[in-house]
Amino acid sequence: MDYLNNKFDIIVVGAGHAGCEAAISAARLGCNVLLCSLNLDNIALQPCNPAIGGPAKSTLVREIDALGGVMGEVADATYIQMKTLNSSKGPAVRALRAQSDKKEYTQYMRNLIENIPNIWLKQCCITELKTKDGKICGAIDEFGIEYSCRAVILTTGTSLEGRMFIGLQAYPGGRLGEAAAYGLSDWLRKNGIRTKKLKTGTPARVDKRTIDYSKMTIQPGDDKLSFYSFKPNRPVRPQVPCYLTRTNEDTHRVIRENLDKSPMYQGLIQGVGPRYCPSIEDKIVRFASNPSHHIFIEPEGLNTYEVYIQGFSTSLPACVQVEMLRSLPGLEKAHIIKPAYAVEYDYVPAVQTLHSLMSKDIKGLFFAGQINGTSGYEEAAAQGLVAGINSVNYLNSSEMLELPRSSSYIGTLIDDLVTKDIQEPYRMLTSRSEYRLLLRQDNADARLTDIGHKVGLIDEMQYSRFKSKQENIQKEIERLKEVKVSATEEVNEILAKYGEHIDRGMRLAELLKRPSITYDVFKEIDSETKELGLTEDVTGEVEVLIKYDGYISRQEQQVESTEKLEKYKIPVDIDYSQIKHISTETREKLEKIRPTNLAQASRIGGVKPADISVLMVMLKG
Known about the structure:
Elements: E1 10-13, H1 17-28, E2 33-37, E3 51-53, H2 57-67, H3 71-78, E4 79-85, E5 95-100, H4 102-114, E6 119-123, E7 126-132, E8 135-141, E9 146-148, E10 151-154, E11 163-166, E12 169-172, H5 184-190, E13 196-202, E14 205-207, E15 217-219, E16 242-246, H6 249-257, H7 280-286, E17 294-299, E18 306-310, H8 318-325, E19 336-338, E20 341-347, E21 365-367, H9 377-395, H10 409-419, H11 444-455, H12 460-482, E22 484-485, H13 489-496, E23 506-507, H14 508-512, H15 522-525, H16 527-532, H17 536-547, H18 549-566, H19 584-593, H20 598-602, H21 609-620
Parallel strand pairs: 1-2, 1-10, 2-6, 10-21
Antiparallel strand pairs: 3-5, 4-5, 7-8, 8-9, 11-12, 11-20, 13-20, 14-18, 14-19, 15-16, 16-17, 17-18, 22-23
């Protein structure tokens, strides 16, 4: 490695969740990587809520792990609470959520990075990129130091020309205590890449010694632990509770009386904020008829007094924040350690990138994370992993990893970003996937481990464990389809405990389709099931595959229909202006997005089925 001459294969700009996954994956695939950060003490920082997962996001984390990424491993190693959400609902919406120790998470990730010999850390601000013949060839930092490389991955988070707002006061910065990054946005615009503004925010942090938890509802973790990573030997750690309180009319009154001090309502912030994680003042205005909103009190770590007030994001002045917080039950004497704030920053609309996350206009330039218009650690990490893999593929002239929507939430996320003109921070939701019953958190390894192994990020030991698990699942499904249980008095006595009864002998697979019957019931009525002693990850998957077989089959038929459209590839140099029988508006949208196949074209807003038929006829001809 010629690091003394500042020569690298890949430069990753930003060391948040996207940057870490990008750097680690590229380095593990053999490239020499320079990882640049404005502050190396904040590697993989959780600047908002100290948690990983939740609805849809937990599936992203499991998919990252199945492909060979590290977020799941780090979350499992540093949790202070594990909880499965929606456990009483169907498998498509069940979600794991880990409350993290914020400082431990950052330290664990930094240790991972520092133990990979071909990652080089640098605290600096990249202000310019260098190109030659339309390809990336280097970068320059704020000190004028030049670095040589063949690919750059931008994972700048909220730093690009960031401005923080507390009340009507504005400060340059990407987040509290950190500088904003200037120069790079100008370079992007000068080189034909559009930037726009988005806004996000975070709540105040409060000293837990000033909180009266007796006035709140406790929210404990699960007694029976689940984990993100498919690797074995996950740590069992002591869990701490979160707490629930609620806003009231006093809270709402304080907010309404001070809206004139809100930068958002005074027009000082132009960027659009996240719809699914609005500020508390936005909630009060938009949902005026709602008398109360949930507020969760979440610890930031085992060795700190700092707690996070989830659901109370605001940009109102610090003095108003004190009054707002002290109106909440249990927070009447709350001491604010860090005030809440909003931040407005530059992002690059991702319609300017390919599914590989590489720029359409500058070869070797990749974008991942909030710079693409997303919101959330999990969304950022997923993009970072894909960008890291594809930056290596680009250098090796290999086929790019482009995950279809039917394979993963990661594929859905990226396809939405590059196909739809996002106008607000994008958050992954289960409702965004038309294949959500197929794309569950429990089967992420079955969907993606083969790809991770082929890419080179899943080692032989892990791959062997995966293959063994899949074989056990298939064997058990076949066994349950063959084994019958008799309608004896003893069996019906056991089934009666679960509100069930059988009048005839029945195959176990058929019995398992009944809603009240779980796989664990078979351990009571079938001796072979108990003797097999299969692990819960195997039996859980068996249960889902049998219980939801009909629904899964229907979604697989949907996938087949979509795959037919994906086979119709659209030429890169197609001239949409010459296509007759489609509207001018449709031509403009197709020209802007430049879809790679008919399936992607069909998902562009405003493109009608009749337009797809015209394109299909043209491509067939």
